[in-house]
Amino acid sequence: MTAQLQLLQKGGPFKVVQVPKPTPGPEEVLIRQRVIAFNLVDAKQRDLGIGIARWPHVLGIEGAGVIEAVGSGVHHLRPGDEAAGWEGSGALGDSWGGAFQERVAVPGYLVAKKPKNISLEEAASLPIGFVTAVAAIVNGLKIPLPFLQGLSTEGQAPLSVLVLGGSSATGAAVIQLLRKAYPSLPILTTSSEKSHKLLSDLGATYVTKYKSHSVVADIKAASPGGAGVDVIIDCVSAGARQTDITDVLDPSGSKRYASVVTGVPVPIPEGVSKVDVLASDMVGVQGGKQLIPSLINLVEEGRYRVPLPVRVVGHGLEALADVLDEVKTVSGEKVVLTL
Ligand SMILES: NC(=O)c1ccc[n+]([C@@H]2O[C@H](COP(=O)([O-])OP(=O)(O)OC[C@H]3O[C@@H](n4cnc5c(N)ncnc54)[C@H](OP(=O)(O)O)[C@@H]3O)[C@@H](O)[C@H]2O)c1
After folding, report:
1. Which one, out of 156, 164, 167, 226, has a CA that is 20 to 30 A from the CA of 101?
2. 292 belongs to a structural domain
């Protein structure tokens, strides 16, 4: 038997329940969880029941642990390996539960060996931000990231990019990936002041406070030649509150706006082309199934760093329900729980 944290109904409560230990299918691996990383979507799913087809439900979409068993078709992992992965989402199917359990069986392609140079906590914090960032850049805006094997290289480099929400897990990954692919690309971003240095270190050329009254004018002034930016990647639905943010787009640029789907609609004026970004879309696109192994290789080779500091907020499945709200107030960090 193994324990899982079941969400019994929309809004809670949670209950720790013993269930039979899952047997991985031929293409799956069974992970004994050691770390569960939190995402805002976990709290949203708890509160609103989004994407939950039946109750009780096991939430959680990323984590890390030790491989306990592998299916006959999985060759890149062995029992005993420490590994991290994208561990479930309603959008990916519901044949396995989410990350909020002691043992989780997931498709092998969503899991890769932990890089030797980072901790298990750091490894658990990486997958969702990375995949969402790639979804925004490559799938949403057709901006190639040539160092990621297997992905489409159609499309072209932007002239400049504004990343709204640079200190979010997604935004910090977007900045790092764009900088890696395009060394001289102007990357402008927004965050609270405490994350400005971090975002500059990740590769942003200009960072400003999104709560400033002059944010639109400041970004425009900082864009190349003061003409405005070519494209916007909105990682946090910032455009829902800052409704004039598209004024920073260069009228002669490509005027594209990639909006990570958060549940909060972003109104976009005519003449700007908006694309909604879903991480789960990456599973079905060319090269999407190579993303987690690519991420781990990049980290191990020192070519991609853990974008945000990681904070442990609790220990044990029983504590999880009490600390889940921490995710609603994160600022420039990832929060995780150990098991
Ligand atoms: N559709 C998908 O497939 C998908 C995938 C992943 C995430 N998401 C959603 O995307 C959103 C981001 O997720 P995440 O995990 O990357 O975020 P996160 O790390 O939880 O984001 C927290 C950060 O957002 C920043 N922020 C909040 N409002 C902002 C604003 N108006 N302007 C600039 N920065 C702002 C905060 O910055 P400061 O602390 O600096 O103020 C904080 O550091 C969430 O709503 C999540 O549910 C969707």
Report:
1. 167
2. no
pLDDT average, residue stretch 111-122: 98
The verdict on residue 173 lying in a domain is yes
In ligand 1, the atom with minimum distance to the C-alpha of 166 is: 34
E strands, the chain, in order: 2-7, 14-19, 28-37, 62-70, 82-86, 103-107, 111-113, 161-164, 187-190, 206-208, 231-234, 256-260, 273-277, 310-315, 334-338
Q: Does one domain contain both 120 and 151?
A: no
Residue 303 pLDDT greater than 80, yes or no: yes
Quote the domain boundaries for residue 99: 2-125+308-338
Nearest CA to ligand 1 atom 41: 192
Q: For ligand 1, pick from 236, 282, 311, 326 the residue to mutate: most ligand atoms within 8 Å of CB.
A: 236
- The answer, yes or no, to whether residue 91 has pLDDT greater than 50, is no
Residue 52: which CATH number? 3.90.180.10
Question: Of 234, 262, 279, at which residue does a domain stop?
Answer: 279
Total domain count for the chain?
2
Residue 97 structure tokens: 């539960």
237-256 confidence digits (pLDDT tens) = 999 999 999 999 999 999 99
Q: What is the pLDDT of residue 124?
A: 98
* Residues 262 and 312 occupy one common structural domain: no
Going from the Cα of 168 to the center of ligand 1, the distance in angstroms, rounded, reads 4
pLDDT tens readout for residues 19-28: 999 999 999 9
The whole-number pLDDT of residue 51 equals: 82
pLDDT at 31 over 90: yes
Among 235, 264, 281, 336, which residue has the most ligand 1 atoms within 8 Å of its CB, making it the best to mutate? 235
In ligand 1, which atom is closest to the CA atom of 172? 16
List pocket residues of ligand 1, CB cut-off 6 Å.
39-41, 128-129, 132, 164-165, 167-170, 190-192, 195, 210, 235-236, 238, 241, 260-262, 278-280, 330-332
- Dihedral (CA of 166, 100, 8, 315) sign: negative
